[in-house]
Amino acid sequence: MVSQVIDVRPAVSAAAPPPVPSTPSIVRHRAGFWIVAFAFVVAMAFSTAPTPLWTLYRQRDHFSTTMVTVAFAAYAVGVVVSLFLAGHVSDWLGRRRVLVPAILLEVVAAVVFLLWPDLPGLVLARVITGFGIGMITATATAHLAELHAVARPDAPPLRAGLVATAANLGGLAIGPLVAGLLAQHVDGKLTVPYLLFLVLLVGSAIGLFLVPETVPADRKDGQPYRPQRIAVPATERIRYFAVAGAAFGLFAILGLFTSLAPSFLAGIGQTSPVVAGLAAFGVFGAATVAQLLLGRVAPARQLTIGIPATTLGVVVLAAGVLLSSPAGFLAGGLIAGGGAGVLLKGSLGTAAMLAPSHARGEAIAGVFLTAYVGLALPVLGIGVATRLGVPLPTSLVGFAALVLAMMAVVAATLRRHPAATA
C-alpha cells in the first residue's frame, strides 16, 4: 500500500547524464520515462486493489475483522523488510535490474491471489506484494529522475518529481476504484480484478526491458552489499522524532482506509464494492492533489498546514462513525487524506533538512520505519479490540482519539522546537 504511502523518499543519487545526448538516446529515454511511470502506476494500484474486496472475502469465508487486519499488516511487514534489505540496491545494481524482478514479484502475488484465495494465500500474497513495492518505489522514483535528466537536459527536475508523486499516490488511489468497479459489475468478483492486474503487470515487465539503464556500469562492480541503515540526526532530535510521530499518525489513517473502512461501511449498510473503492480512492486522491498543489511550499509551512487539516479530517471522520453517516465518514477521509499528503511531504522534507547531506537517506529511512509501524500497529489494535468484543464503531472512535492525541503532541513539540531557519 502506502507504502510507500506513499513513497516520497529522496531519489537515490542520480547518475550524471551524458553531456550531449544523441537524438536516438533522447527518444529512448523519453519513451522509457513513460514506461517506468506506467509500471509504477500499475504496481501501486495493484497494492491497494484488494481494499474493496475484503468484505467479499469475509462474506465468503466468514473470517473475522482481526484476520483482515492480519492480512493487511502482512503487507506492511513485507514493505519494511524489502525497504531495508533491497530498497537501495539499485544504486549499484542498476535501476532496471531491480525494477524488473520487483514487478515480477507483483506478478507472483497476483497468481497467488488467483490460485490460493483462502486466508493463508491472501496473507502470503500480501507479503509478496509488500516485498515488491518496497523495491519499486525508491527505484522507480530515482529512475524517472535520471531518465528525465537525459530526455530533457535543459528542463528543471520538477516534472520528474511531479510524475513520480502522481504515479505513486495516483496508483494507490486508482487500485481500489478499479477493483471496486469490477467487483460490482462482473461475475468473477474475486478473480477478474487480479486477472486484469496480472496482464498489466506482465506487460509492464516486458516494457521495462526496453528502458535504458541509467546507472553506470562501473558502479556495479565491487560494491559490497549492506542493508539500508537508519540514522537519527544528532542535532534537533526532538524535532526529528516529532515529524516521525506525524508520519506514524498519517500512515495509520491511510492504513485504516485500505483495511477496515470497507468493514465499517458494510456495517452501516454500504456493502457495495464501488463505495469501498471510492472511499480509498478519495483519500489517496486527495493526498495526491494536495502534494501536487503544495509541493513547492517550504517543509515547515507544509507541517503547519498538514497537521490541522489532518486533525480536522479525523474529527469529521469520528463524527461520521458516531452518527453512522457514510457521507461524514467519507468527507472525513477526504479532508484527512489531503492533510496527510501535505503532512507527509513536510515530514520527509524536514527530516532531510535536519540530517547532514551524507545521512539524509538514513534519516528518511527512520521516518519511514516509524510510518510503516503506524500503517500496521493501530489497525491491528482495532482488530484485537473487535476480537475482544468491542464494536467496530467504538474501536474506530478510539482510533481517532489516539490519532488526535498524537497530532496534538506533534504540534506542541514543533511549536516548542521550531526550525532553525524559521
Automatic annotation (TrEMBL):
PROSITE patterns: MFS (PS50850). Keywords: Cell membrane, Membrane, Transmembrane, Transmembrane helix, Transport. The chain crosses the membrane at residues 33-57, 63-86, 98-117, 123-145, 157-182, 194-217, 238-261, 273-294, 303-323, 329-355, 367-390, 396-414. InterPro entries: MFS, MFS_dom, MFS_trans_sf, MFS_Transporters. SUPFAM superfamilies: MFS general substrate transporter (SSF103473). It is a multi-pass membrane protein. It comes from the Bacteria. It is found in: Cell membrane. The keyword Cell membrane applies. Its main location: membrane. Residues 31-418 form the Major facilitator superfamily (MFS) profile domain. This is MFS transporter. The lineage of its organism: Bacteria, Bacillati, Actinomycetota, Actinomycetes, Micromonosporales.
